[in-house]
Amino acid sequence: MTTVATPPPGPITGNTRLYAVLGDPVTQVQSPGLLNPVFAELGIDAVLVPVHARGADLESVVRGLQRVGNLDGLFATVPHKAAVAGLADRRSRTVEITGSANALRREADGTWLAENFDGSGFVAGLTGAGHDPRGRRVSMAGAGGAGSAIAAALLTAGAANLSVFDPDASRLAELVDRLARHWPGRVSAVPELPLYESDIAVNATPLGLRAGDPLPFQPGDLPPGGVVADIIMKPKETPLLMEAAARGHRVHHGMHMLAGQVDSYRAFFGLGVPRTAG
């Protein structure tokens, strides 16, 4: 059985269902390029578009979009994942633990449910690339929306211990406190990442998104054979990953996190399965 080639997207009509991805900026978002072909493959009359929503305008933008009758879902990217969690009527267990969301779904009764697939997508991509975190020592920079979800997923996947650094001490302490209630003794807030005794180092910050950003950490401090993972999707080859590769470390690109979420998005939004031909 072979999968039918993805057809070109159909025209946008008065029946087209809408999805929006919210960010500040949005020029780097990759989800439209992944999900719009899924809509076409499944024969679904829908489109996902990027929406540039600045922080001060986020609530107004979300509340307005939630009132659009043919809009079925919202996605959130940097830096809105924590804020949109509070704009949903209900939150999944993952969102309650992490305090962040990257997808909101309109329910049949008109209410909105928040979910977060960043963590599960990141771990799926990491494991699929041969870097199973089970039993591994992990250091992570970033306790924001994506970092919160990734931290919970790494612990769920069996990481032996997780050290997290974030310059926002209050945000870091709140995250580690929430995680420690579920995984006591396996997660700690640190003033500096213990890369020298880590197997996997993760950048879950926006550093690398803009030209001239400093490195989130020095990959040279990782032991030989370590894995350096970045969640930045554009550029693909971030300064962190280029530095890590130059030092002989294995690298893991940001696009893997999004690719690992596609099946979860399809299930969450009820998008069915691809058409096949025998």
Automatic annotation (TrEMBL):
Annotated Shikimate dehydrogenase substrate binding N-terminal domain residues: 21-103
Biological process according to GO: aromatic amino acid family biosynthetic process; chorismate biosynthetic process; shikimate metabolic process
Record-level Gene Ontology MF annotations: shikimate 3-dehydrogenase (NADP+) activity
Protein name: AstA5
Keyword field contains Amino-acid biosynthesis: yes
One Pfam family of this chain: Shikimate_dh_N
Pathway(s) served: Metabolic intermediate biosynthesis; chorismate biosynthesis; chorismate from D-erythrose 4-phosphate and phosphoenolpyruvate: step 4/7
Record carries keyword Zinc: no
UniProt-listed InterPro entries: Aminoacid_DH-like_N_sf (IPR046346), NAD(P)-bd_dom_sf (IPR036291), Shikimate_DH-bd_N (IPR013708), Shikimate_DH_fam (IPR022893)
